[in-house]
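Order emerges. As here.
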Amino acid sequence: MTSAIPQKSKPLPEGIYCPVISIYKSTPRQEIDLDASYNFFSYLIRAGIDGLVLAGTTAEAVLLSPAERQDLLRVARKAADDLGLKEYPLVAGISGQSTNETIRLAHEAQNAGADYGLLLPPNYWAGAVNKDVILGFYREVADNSGIPIVIYSFPAVCNGIDMNSDILSELAQHPNIVGVKLTCGNAGKVTRLTQEYTSSQFAVHAGSSDWLLPCLIGGGAGCVTGIANIFPKSVTRLNDLWNDVRMNINESRKLQGLIAQAEKACKQGIACTKYGTDFFLGRKIGINDEQAFWPRRPYKPCTKETQDWVVGVMEHLVEIEHSLQMKYV
């Protein structure tokens, strides 16, 4: 039965969100390259990406300083504003290990231009994180945040903490909790939550594009996907096919399979995602320094063998990507 709760005052828009990579200068300290970031954000927006996620897992958020997080948000907001998209949605990672720290991060993100906050559960002492702790944490942050909260379910980076659909459903009833990103890959959560809530009440997004079509078929609102850093037009095309009432289901299935094949490289880690962005898109957006796409140390870029594998599993999308038009010019 559909919930009777009112729609949220600021629902999370449906569509494709890109958790953007961080681009660095090739200096000993690997400072953030804000000019290159502006060009990259502008390209993704013009390509039709529906929203950007800043300071998320793919952005190496745990390796970014608070000032860098805020600078990237301001640059993303300027990129959208300069394209005339004053209401373009920006989602900021605000995950902290304490309630106090998380509320501070939410306030800083709001001041820097974020519209929503993406929030993992506390997980440092996983054995102490039970249902009551999770519910209390999200509710208190939501009570004290000036921006709506999007729950981030990603057990692989949270010491195995996995929020089931019952917990998510309870949190969905909070007026300032507007959706969830399911990087847990559990399609059952999609269908259970969408049976209860509309997207304007609580939006359910897949955490990667290799199950975008199953998520949409199950009533989901879209996805947040690393492959959008590399092939943004292809992923948005798949979403558009689904949204078209005259869609060609066979074309959708074919494109879903191609995107899923490319996405598996992103699942091997951030270094692969960044190398793919460099190889297929870097020169196109004017970034000619391959080190700009290296992970922040101490983490290492891909080996030559891995680079060749990444290109091999992604290159089948190049022709499709190049055939599609930019959404904004």
Notes: The longest strand covers residues 177-182. The chain has a mean pLDDT of 95. Strands lie at 15-19, 51-54, 90-93, 116-119, 149-153, 177-182, 203-206, 222-224. The chain has twelve helices and eight strands.
